[in-house]
Amino acid sequence: MKILSVVGARPQFIKEAVVGEQLRRYGAHEILVHTGQHYDVNMSDVFFRYLELKKPDYNLSVGSGTHAYQTGMSMIRIEEVAIKEKPDIIVVYGDTNATVAGALVGAKLKIPVAHVEAGLRQKPKDMPEEINRVVTDHTSKFLFCPTKKAIDNLKLEGISKGVYFAGDVMYDLFLRLKDSIDDQKVLEKYGLQRESYILTTVHRDFNTDNEERLRNILTALGEISYVIPVVFPMHPRTKKVINQKNLWNLLGKTRVIDPVPYHELVALLANSLKVVTDSGGVQKEAYFAGVSAIVLMPDTGWIELIEHGWNVLVDADKDHLIEKALNHVPPSSMPKELYGDGKAGVKIARILVGED
Length: 356
Ligand code: UD1
Ligand code: UDP
Description:
- The strands form 2 sheets. A 7-stranded parallel sheet has the order 3-2-1-4-5-6-7, sandwiched between helices. Strands 10-9-8-11-12-13 form a 6-stranded parallel sheet, with helices on both faces.
- It is built from 16 helices and 13 strands.
- Helix 1 crosses helix 16 (344-352).
- The protein starts with a strand and ends with a helix.
- The protein folds into 2 domains: 2-168 and 340-352, 3-Layer(aba) Sandwich (Rossmann fold); 184-327, Rossmann fold.
- It is 46% helix and 14% strand.
- By secondary structure, it is α/β, with parallel strands linked by helices.
- It has helices at residues 10-25, 41-50, 67-85, 97-109, 128-138, 148-156, 169-177, 183-189, 205-208, 211-225, 236-245, 262-270, 280-288, 303-307, 318-327, 344-352, and strands spanning 2-7, 29-34, 58-59, 89-93, 113-116, 142-145, 163-165, 198-201, 230-233, 255-257, 274-277, 293-295, 312-313.
- The protein binds uridine-diphosphate-N-acetylglucosamine (UD1) and uridine-5'-diphosphate.
- Uridine-5'-diphosphate binds at residues 10-11, 14, 201, 203, 233, 259-262, 265, 279-282, 285.
């Protein structure tokens, strides 16, 4: 069984770390394609090194650009690889331009596509990730859902064949690595004390590329930073916009650092008092770590965490953000196994290699 896995952006390296390992364990011959969408050392190489990912068999060096450029170049180059390698299945992860490119290539070449993290839906419907999710789900043959809600979402769109509840692969990884991370070392590196700071990440295009929203968010973080330390590993997209618009002064005493490797992110999350984020992965990892997240979005694919009161949606409302970041108290208990049993990678691999 030959499987071609497509990755390109930071969250996909993390998901591939789980699924790729299991695919190879169950005897698949895996060809790994990196589209090159993320290319800085701290956005790509650090994940390959720390998570011991397979070295990509192909790096397509697509880099940054418009959506059409990134998706189009990725498609052209993935197609060349797929024609040469003739895989039995193409695996794609999440909702980036690399995801939709891999899915469209597979569908057009009639190679079955497996979508890991299928069925998530969120408003606004015109956000790039939502477009990528819908197209990918409608062109996939295997749809591995991280939540029960995702299965319901697919049903509403008439998709029920090939749909599996796998659980969340990021939960697998979190469980596997959390005890091996030296939290104290990371806290010392950044001069932080346990449960006495807020961790924030911001990179969503509707927040960075809309000046009013960005100003609201940065101003709120700035105000919060005078009450409690705020640490902000900053995505290059956000840094670029803040530089262009010269908005650094809004951040007050916020401590801005470069993007951190996965184990540092987990340590920073697990020891924080609260998380403020627009990241899909981080809002869920916060829950895994027992910390609640204030979510800078109007809606989220991880809606169950909002419904149970663990996380809160504040969109880009400055006052709401400040109030919730400082005062939100999550419930004392949560339903078990919202994201599966930590064996999503095994389930996905067994189904793809035909053992289940
Ligand atoms: C992409 C995904 C988003 C995901 C995020 C994870 C799409 C449409 N978006 O968004 O869903 O949540 O990755 O982090 O696929 N840049 C660098 N160095 C890099 C990578 C990017 O400087 O290594 C800068 C460039 O200026 C680039 C900008 O960041 O133009 C945006 O990068 P891009 O990959 O287009 O989108 P993300 O915002 O990273
Ligand atoms: N992450 C990391 N270092 C950082 C920020 C994020 O290791 O400085 C990890 C974190 O585990 C997160 C994943 O990268 O879940 C993907 O995050 P990102 O916010 O880039 O993408 P999204 O999940 O929103 O698509």
